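TASK: fixed-backbone design
INPUT:
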């Protein structure tokens, strides 16, 4: 089963953690507070929507895959052995 994320934590968006933003985590939070990076509030968390990250990819001129490229982190669920430990 593949899970597609629609909202990303700021920590997930920086390059160090596999994201596309080539700035530091403190810069991401500063841009969020300034309003440069749009966010969605879920509970007490601020999450960055995928469409914003997608717009950054399109602006950078990276090639699209058949016109349907989306910056989605695809994660598979852990195996049954891993789940059995919990």
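OUTPUT:
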């Amino acid at each position: 089963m593949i899970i597609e994320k629609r909202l990303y934590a700021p920590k997930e968006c920086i390059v160090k953690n596999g994201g596309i933003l080539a700035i530091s985590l403190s810069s991401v939070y500063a841009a969020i507070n300034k309003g440069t990076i749009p966010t969605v509030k879920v509970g007490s968390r601020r999450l960055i929507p995928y469409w914003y990250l997608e717009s950054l990819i399109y602006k950078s001129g990276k090639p699209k895959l058949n016109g349907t490229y989306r910056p989605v982190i695809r994660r598979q669920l852990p195996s049954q052995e891993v789940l059995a430990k919990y």
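COMMENT: The longest strand covers residues 45-49.
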